[in-house]
Amino acid sequence: TPETTCAAAAARDRRVDYGFCVSRLSHHHDSPDADTWGLAKVAADVGVATAGDAVYDIKALLAKPPPDAQARAALEQCQRLYDAAEMAFAEAYDGINRRDYAAGKGKAAEAAALARRCDDAFARAAVRPPPQVARWGEESSKIAVVCTAITDLIG
Amino acid sequence: MAAAAEIGGFTAAALRPLAHPAPAAAPRRAVAAQSLRTTATETLTADLAASTANGAVHAQMYSEASSEIPSQAAIANSRRKTKIVCTIGPSTNTREMIWKLAETGMNVARLNMSHGDHQSHQKVINLVKEYNAQNTDGNVIAIMLDTKGPEVRSGDVPEPIMLSEGQEFNFTIKRGVSTEDTVSVNYDDFINDVEAGDILLVDGGMMSLAVKSKTADTVKCEVVDGGELKSRRHLNVRGKSATLPSITEKDWEDIKFGVENGVDFYAVSFVKDAKVIHELKDYLKGVNADIHVIPKIESADSIPNLQSIIAASDGAMVARGDLGAELPIEDVPLLQAEIVQTCRNMEKPVIVATNMLESMIDHPTPTRAEVSDIAIAVREGADAIMLSGETAHGKYPLKAVKVMHTVALRTESSIYNPTTSPSVIASAQGLQNEEFSPSQLSKMFGSHATMMANTLRTPIIVFTQTGSMAVLLSHYRPSSTIFAFTNEERVKLRLALYQGVIPIHMEFSDDAEETFSRAISSLLKAQYVKKGDYVTLVQSGVTSIWREESTHNIQVRRAQV
Q1: CA–CA gap between residue B75 and residue B61 (Å, rounded)
Q2: Alpha helices of B141-218 — where are they, by DSSP H?
Q3: Which phi and psi (to 5°) does residue B123 adopt?
Q4: Residue B153 forms beta bridges with which residues?
Q5: Do residues B95 and B131 lie in contact, with contact meaning Cβ atoms separated by under 8 Å?
Q6: Closest among B355, B350, B328, B330 to B339, alpha carbons compared
Q7: 3-class DSSP state for residue B5?
């Protein structure tokens, strides 16, 4: 179950946020009858959706004129980064699905790194990121950790 | 003469059950025909009952004297949600047939670049655009250009053909050929790509044949290494094609042709990974072409990369013929379900293709298995279902479209629409955060609008500049129709592919109420809704139209003149 798997993942890797892990995995339509392998894929799929939501929100922000050119440039870069993060999470899913766990974990880590670069873009512009962008960055990192930790549990 | 029969058949369908006596030599067809007639009768009975309840509408609906009454296809299409993609070929590439296909139920015209030339495809494109220009309030036809890809394949054979060393065997560019010594290939220029003396490799060399001579349409060979020739085998010319890129030179020419003509979709053949999708999308971005990319999932190599291929794309096509050739045939239904579900999860359109009504290439009625096949695709939630040879070179293209229309419509009427998981995910996220992000708000509003429309049994009206809200609503599969008003012609055409969406172009004014009134008047005029009907009106999406930031709105209004 998501609860037992998340607990095991958290025990193995203290970076895993147990509450976050359970809430995200348990609401996915594939989780009710998933084994550990299935839940690792669920985590990757949640990552795809999370990055996709970030892209959506960034487009929404860009549809309204940002306060300054630097903020706009940062948002545009973030859109590209989250597009790439979405792909990386999808590739993580494919890797895990192929039982190529090393590749899957590598792609999950890559996705998290891409999300962090978005935060870096705002930092370099000396602009505070919009709340929703900051949230997606945090959630992308968290779900990548969850995905990696659960993948490590696969026997 | 055949065209006249088709016209008669179409007219009869609106008034009485169809009569399709099967040939005496094919008694199985009689059983299938009876099954289809039952389905058609049930549908027509329901239609007539509904019309009877609104006698005046019934009278107007079939009055040929009124120039303002939309075509039957427009009315019919507003009730069918699953879209129909038709491949245009020698059987259908005339003005008359394009119009009839559109009236019968075609939503997307597919151009197969493996056959024909740019001139013949240009003709079809021009005709479709002409049709769209003449039908601004009714059916809209999108255009999908299907690349050939690097693969050349042999055609379908009913049973494997044993090839023996030294035997003469031929490949022809004629379609649908399968005899003891000759089979088709899927590419017209194959005849020009091989020369006497070349060695043809089947499936990478499991069998090989030496090219001896050529005629205008046939390559004559002698078997060098024999074996069992099955359907859709890879054909390569030794030393010539083994290292072809995913997008060949011909494909790039076809892609540029598509850009020049502003097609709406590319169906990309033999995609194995996301790399080729990125390459094509980068090119399209570079030439400022707003064309969506639909990979055809048809090779064994694509399955391990399914998630990333679809993530990189704008949708997908389940190309089952080649999937069945490369993978165990018993896996195809499971793969279809997986591909459909993956697309559904990602809110991307999915087309189910190949062999859906294959028997109707030569027969006027479908098999019961084919009817069930269409029903399964509809039940799985496919956005669209596709006809290939049936409309490209079949004898009964209009009948095939009509069958597909009827079966899809009947199946849809029996489907229950549960709330889907993504809305639950969005809700869960919302519950944990005080501040909702645009993506979460849009998902929740899409979900709630769908539930409202389902509960109240109203159609949905949505105003969209980018199409995103219409796509999201389609994803939730509301029971009723989504009327998507957009001020972007490009978006209108693209939305033709999405399940349940009827796109309508309309310029937006600065006054929201004035625009709403015009939209409802448009629907009343087109007979999509009747005076006094309720509609669910949705204001939400990426861009704000007539609303302040963070304000989303769902209204239920009564249609008034």
Answers
A1: 9
A2: 190-193
A3: -60, -45
A4: B234
A5: no
A6: B350
A7: helix
Shortest distance, CA B189 to any CA of chain A (angstroms): 36
* Report for B25-29, B94-98, B422-426: range of highest mean pLDDT: B94-98
Q: Which domains does chain B have, with CATH numbers?
A: 76-149+245-415 (3.20.20.60), 161-237 (2.40.33.10), 438-559 (3.40.1380.20)
pLDDT digits (tens, 9 = 90+) for A109-138: 999 999 999 999 999 988 889 988 999 999
B209 pLDDT exceeds 60? yes
pLDDT value at residue B541: 58
Read off the tokens for B521: 């008047």
d(CA B138, CA A55): 34
N residues, chain B: 561
Which of A24, A90, A132 faces B437 most closely, judged by CB atoms? A132
User: Please, are residues B9 and B18 in contact by the beta-carbon 8 Å criterion?
Assistant: yes
Cα B262 from chain centre: 18
Q: How far apart are CA B327 and CA A59, in angstroms?
A: 40
Could you tell me if B43 and B409 are in contact, meaning their C-beta atoms sit under 8 angstroms apart? yes
Highest-confidence segment of A18-27, B22-31, B538-547: A18-27
Tokens matching residue B494 = 């693209």
Nearest CB to A28 within list B311, B421, B437: B421
Chain-chain contact of A94 with B421 (C-beta, under 8 angstroms): no
Q: Are strands B534-539 and B384-387 parallel, antiparallel or unpaired?
A: unpaired
Q: In the structure, what pLDDT confidence band is assigned to residue B137 with cuts at 50, 70 and 90?
A: low
Provide the shortest C-alpha distance from residue A12 to chain B (in Å).
Answer: 26
Instruction: Give the pLDDT of residue B424.
Output: 35
Where does residue B460 fall: left (phi above 0), alpha (psi -120 to 50 degrees), or beta otherwise?
A: beta
Predicted confidence (pLDDT) per residue in B504-540, tens digit: 999 988 888 898 999 999 999 888 899 999 999 988 6
pLDDT in tens, B362-402: 999 999 999 999 999 999 999 999 999 999 999 999 999 99
Residues above pLDDT 70, as percent of chain B? 78
Residues in chain A: 155
Task: Tell me whether A97 touches chain B (CB under 8 Å).
Answer: yes
Catalytically active residues of B, by annotation: 110, 153, 296, 354
